[in-house]
Specification:
Elements lengths: L1 E2 L2 H8 L4 H16 L23 E2 L12 H5 L5 E6 L2 E6 L7 E4 H4 L4 H7 L10 H9 L4 E5 L9 E6 L6 E2 L2 E6 L4 E9 L6 E3 L2 E6 L4 E9 L4 E11 L4 E8 L4 E10 L5 E10 L4 E10 L5 E10 L4 E10 L6 E11 L5 E10 L4 E10 L3 H9 L4 H17 L5 H20 L5
Parallel strand pairs: 3-7, 6-9, 7-10, 8-11, 9-12, 10-13, 11-14, 12-14, 13-15, 14-16, 15-17, 16-18, 17-19, 18-20, 19-21, 20-22, 21-23
Antiparallel strand pairs: 1-2, 3-4, 5-6
Helix pairs in contact: 1-2, 2-6, 7-8, 8-9
Amino acid sequence: MIPLDQTALERATAGVPQWLSARRTAGYERFDKLAMPSSQEEVWKYVDLDFDLADFALNDTPGGALTGPDEVAAAMPATAGVLRVVDGFVSLLEPVGSPGAVFDSVLAAAADLSELLEARYGAAIPADLDKFAAAAAAFSTDGVVVSIPAGKAVTDPFYVDVQATTPGTVSFPRVMIDVGASAQTSLVINYRSPHDARLIVVPDLEITAGQNANVDITIVQNWGYATRAISHVNAVVGRDARLQIAEAGLGGKLSRLHLSVDLEGRGSSAEILGAYFGERDQVLDYRYFMRHIGTDTDSDMFLKGGVEDEALSVFTGMIRIEESAQKTNAFQTNRNLLLSDGAAAQSVPNLEILANDVRCGHGSTVGPLDAEQRYYLMSRGLDRARSDRLQVRGFFDQVLARFPISELAEPISGWINEKYVAAQAEGRVA
């Protein structure tokens, strides 16, 4: 294993193009100066980081891949290509079947996509955002690139299976997706790890949607219960382009997702969906930022979550509408179920409006299951446990129905139901 010091930097910069070496060196300089975030900082106030990156090391070889069934892959009817990432190491399982499209590791594609990678790879997420972003900039030795040329439509989704398997390690899986003008594609990312492996993962996702492009992203976050994950997503959306990002947040001791979308082009739009369920003492932390820059832009954030036992969910949302973004439509909704007395949900939606010709709204709710609905269902012959399960399932169905890969909605709903049924059986819910 390799500690996060100069030795790791030397490995990350060995044999790579000069621009990438310079970018990693700059990331290391930021990493070396930045302290671990503290709950005393406003942006981390709800999160207790009970670990230090210095206590974890990089794997010098990929760990063993998970041997259990891949339920996400099994639910997908077809794929345009399959990549696996284990402890930050990329391997191609199923090559891209669509001529002209690129779906490969960054190092494998570096020669053919040198100009694109130099301009975009690792540049969208600032290294000074936090110590984790700086570490990713410095130590991410390989990544995944998806490049769709202008006018190309790839109808089947690409699939990236991201695993972290070696206890005591930290890994920095990075995915970059670039979709050209009037092109179309979709991507499914499955994040997973063993339940008993104490490790850190810092996944980064960079998205560029060109003019009139159509991009769908589905993230299934199913890290093991001993995993702490700090994720960053950055997207730039061009004129008349459409972006949809859906995330199912299911696992992790701590899972934090920092998402930022810039609607730069006129007529661009973004839909951000989330369904999350926290159990036991999990912490699920979402920080979502939508920035409207072009005119006639549209956005919709819609997230639903449930927490039980002593779990905590946090949603901090910001919609910023620049002065240039006239005729904007922007909406933000976060709804939460409190399923135990010890659980907590923090919801902080925000609007910052600098334009005067806009339609905007935001709202949030935090509360228990509906007693009247429970009474109605029980009056129809169901016991309390089954009536509550129906309420929970129905609560999430509204958002899952909008996920871009419809075949994944049912298994995600099933996994949430399994968690809730287990909590009922163990007496962790009210």
